[in-house]
Amino acid sequence: MIHIQNIIDAIGQGSIFALIAVGIGLVFGVLRLINFAYGQLIMLAAYTLAFTDSWPDAASVVLAVIVAVAASLVLERVAYRPLRSADPSTMLVATFAVAFLLENAALVQYTYRQQGIVADPVGTLSKLNEAVTIGSLHVRWVSFVAIGAGIVSLGALALLLNRTSIGLQMRAASMDFSTARLLGVKANTVIVAAVAVSGVLAAVAAVVLSVGNASVTYTTGLYETLFVLVGVVAGGIDRLMSATLGGFAIGFGISIVGAELPSSGETPFTSNVYMPSVIYLAVIVALLLRPAGLFARGGRGAERV
Amino acid sequence: MSRLRGWEQLLGPVAAVALLALVSGLVVSSANQVQYLTAIVYVAIVAALYVFVGNSGVISFGQVSFVAVGAFAAGVMTIPIDTKPGVMSTLFPLLRDHSISSAWSLALAAGLGGLYAFVVGIPLMRLSGIAAGIATLAVLGITYNLFYNWNSIGPAATVESLIPVTTDYWQATIGAVAVICIAFAYQRSRFGRQLRAAREDPAAARAAGIDIHRQRLLAFTLSGALSGFAGGLYVHLLGSIGANQVYLDLTFLTLAMLVVGGISSLFGAVVGAITISLFNILLVNAQLGIHVFGWSITAPSGTSLVGIAVIMLVILLLRPAGITGGKEFSLPSTLLPARLRSR
Fold it and tell me: Is B138 on the interface with A (CB under 8 A)?
């Protein structure tokens, strides 16, 4: 029997993953780029929170947003824009290189600070880690924040995409970039807008993640991003909604499988150390049944954003 | 004689490996030699990766799974039998109570790598594009997860270091050249050409009667067998085996090598692997300290990896289609006998 507490925890985890999925799906929509470096952007924002731990929470969050957006824009300008017309594999490897660069830069800075590689504590918004108790159920505030942040950012994005000119241009660009350009959509403006929004989302994800796990290392965000990338494609990367649902589903699945499987057992699939195998197997089955994504709309020519 | 036309393309990749081997054997100090041998083994891994990714145009994140299977098979089965039941008591009895020679372990690695790729490929090769990439990434995730946790098939979360170090200068070179020759023979075969046609235009290829699923499966299996073999070479070079040695880092590194060299040619695969490896050796040595005109420069640890990432980016920005532009090696036509010149 699945416990209600586990379901509540899984919804919280799913919401965090959904948030990351929006950032990845948005950039994919306009750039057709699977951004393997998104986790390192989250890490960068998380380090910003850690280094400004003594500041007021609001100031440190604002700085984290600024850092994540600035880094996204610089990467877009320096690494991705010149490669836009190149083979997709080239842009993919460029994101590996960026990820590798940021991860190792995070390692090198420990040498300059003359200390071992240890996690940096983050206390930003740590009050959110406390739980509300309803009967026998415990819900951490951060779960509400994650769900709230997910809903607010999706809602704001829906408004942006459906009600503003830049949103219309983003949708047009993601359906058919070359035709959109012929009709006067400015490619750079649209891409910069999408990349900047994904940077904001990376910072939000960093805040939510560091509330749950109050320390930052050079691998912060890596594990989550890998699963989200897989989930986004399994959900359907061609539309922002299906991509987000895919992200939510994988976060939910990870949490619930991890909690429901027993914690000891050597044989494969009998304990929760085999949770990744269970999830990946489910993803493979989902992709084989519905290659365009579990939540993708039927029919061709569906909008990608 | 016309059957020989085009075989001079093989000269480039083989000569590049031979040169690297020669340098590592003659010039390099013994402390650095293992880095050069690693570079040669990387050539084998990237050439194996190329057999599928280069010819099919489908990005696979899963080929390192087959390297892992080969590495674990070759590693676990060559731990000396007198110590094995003691140090790895949790293994399945079949694995625990038998050991084989290093040479046989390479054959076993190739066989198991190919078998695993074939079994995985039957369903997965129906996918293409991003779905195929992510499904192969999922295979890598499962492979890693099983090797990392299941102590009946290997050392699980620990690193086992009793594996005989047998990949020397000769074995690495001959192994890498063998992988290159097989990859080249495949790409010139009827099957290789059918798959490359499907890469350029799937609809036209299908209309011409090419069974894309079957051709991809064949390339995936061959790539899996070669990857397994290269994994065997790798484990006998490292002398140790652990799940983290054959996971994401190796996947990203080898894919980057392939793309940096030029994804759609075997020459590109070889050049990419060698270029990145040489830069890496250079930067690692710089980290240990270089002496220029009496100045001693020592870079802080970790900078070599930052440097290699920057170099990859710069090469991609300067040459988005890779160093070779995805073209095979070619001799100036004046150097070729008339009957071998292409028209």
Answer: yes
Residue A171 has pLDDT above 70, yes or no: yes
Q: Does A265 touch chain B (CB under 8 A)?
A: no
CB contact at 8 A, A67 and A44? yes
* A219-271: pLDDT as tens digits: 888 888 999 999 999 998 888 888 889 999 999 999 999 888 888 777 888 88
Nearest to A243 by CA among A167, A303, A179, A161: A303
Query: At B67, which helix (H) or strand (E)?
Result: helix B63-76
d(CA A261, CA A270): 7
Q: ipTM score of the complex?
A: 0.89
The A residues from 125 to 184 touching B (CB cutoff 8 Å) are: none
A chain contacts of residue B59, beta-carbon cutoff 8 Å? 89, 92
Contacts of A272 in chain B (CB under 8 A): none
Q: How far is CA A45 from CA A106, A201, A214, B306, in A?
A: 12, 10, 14, 19
Taking the C-alpha atoms of residue A177 and residue B325, their distance in angstroms, rounded to an integer, is: 26
Question: pLDDT per residue over B143-199, tens digit each?
Answer: 999 999 988 888 888 888 888 888 888 899 999 999 999 999 999 999 999 999 999
Please tell me what DSSP assigns to residue B239: S
Dist CA A305 CA A170 (whole Å)? 8
The per-residue pLDDT for range B34-74, each reduced to its tens digit, is 888 999 999 999 999 999 999 999 999 999 999 999 999 99
Strand partners, B160: B241
User: Which residue in B234, B263, B221, B185 sits closest to B74, CA to CA?
Assistant: B234
A261 touches chain B (CB under 8 A): no
Q: How far is B99 from chain A (nearest CA, A)?
A: 23
Task: Search chain B and give the residue with CA nearest A277.
Answer: B142
- Chain B positions touching A36 (Cβ under 8 A) are 252
Per residue in B219-255, pLDDT (tens digit) is 999 999 999 999 999 999 999 888 988 998 899 999 9
- Which 234-253 residues of chain A touch chain B by CB within 8 A? 234, 237
CA distance, residue B53 to nearest chain A CA (Å): 10
